UniProtKB/TrEMBL annotation:
<dbReference type="Pfam" id="PF13601">
    <property type="entry name" value="HTH_34"/>
</dbReference>
<dbReference type="GO" id="GO:0003677">
    <property type="term" value="F:DNA binding"/>
</dbReference>
<dbReference type="InterPro" id="IPR036388">
    <property type="entry name" value="WH-like_DNA-bd_sf"/>
</dbReference>
<protein>
    <submittedName>
        <fullName>Winged helix DNA-binding domain-containing protein</fullName>
    </submittedName>
</protein>
<feature type="domain" description="Winged helix DNA-binding">
    <location>
        <begin position="16"/>
        <end position="95"/>
    </location>
</feature>
<dbReference type="InterPro" id="IPR027395">
    <property type="entry name" value="WH_DNA-bd_dom"/>
</dbReference>
<keyword id="KW-0238">DNA-binding</keyword>
<dbReference type="InterPro" id="IPR036390">
    <property type="entry name" value="WH_DNA-bd_sf"/>
</dbReference>
């Protein structure tokens, strides 16, 4: 049975994951600290949600050094972009009362 919420992607139900994807959709690469400050979350909280999105192949993780300091940054994948857009479309349909 098809329900109005069946197209809602569980990967984006959490506010932190929704925030991560929203930030990454409109930016090319975003580093860990910038993402953490933008979303006002702890290191551990952000790391666990990043791991979940990475497992789904919705984001890419790039680890590099800037000078001698490690830097981790993230980018949305084309698969992640498509999944997030489908999620937004499902939310919009839900709000408008469409199937």
């Amino acid at each position: 049975m098809h329900t109005i919420i069946s197209n809602i992607n569980k990967s984006f139900e959490n506010r932190v994951r929704l925030g991560v994807m929203s930030v990454l959709i409109v930016n090319d690469w975003v580093d860990f600290n910038e993402l953490k400050e933008t979303l006002n979350v702890t290191d551990g909280n952000l790391a666990s949600h990043i791991t979940a999105l990475e497992k789904e192949r919705y984001i890419l993780v790039r680890k590099a050094f800037i000078g001698k300091k490690p830097n981790t940054s993230f980018q949305v994948t084309s698969e992640g972009r498509q999944a997030f857009q489908e999620h937004l479309n499902a939310l919009e349909a839900l709000i408008k009362g469409k199937l």
